[in-house]
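User: Hey, quick favor. My workstation is busy. Could you predict this chain's structure for me?
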Amino acid sequence: TNRECKMIEQLKKELEIDEGCVRKTYLCSEGHKTVGIGHLCQEGDPEFWKSIGTAVSEDRVDELFGKDIAWTMADCRDIVPGFDDMPREVKLILANLMFNMGRGRVLQFRKMLAAVDERDWSVAADEMHDSKWRRQVPARAERLIKRMRAVE
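Assistant: No problem, here it is.
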């Protein structure tokens, strides 16, 4: 839908700020080969086999982001009951978290997910605050936590 496309455009802008947009292969903070907007290179990606610093086209960055965001949104819908009916801001925050951490790590945020299910945005923000994730990406985390607290 058009609303979904607009939300994805907004999410892409936010993720470009949080993840950066690098048009060459590089090692992320965890030491994994990465490219574009935080795309973790997999063995099926031609970039996986290329040396660090190999240039990647803007089209390829967009293609990888499209695939990554499709997985991200599918995972959000799969693990967050009623995801599509939540406020747009909550969907953006949860998708950002999912993109950053992946399904496995988001599933470990049991209390946050329970608060989201109860539509208790303040408790969800508290749970985000009391996490290892916040210590790993403090600027991003504080921004997302502040946004979660502001949801009506």
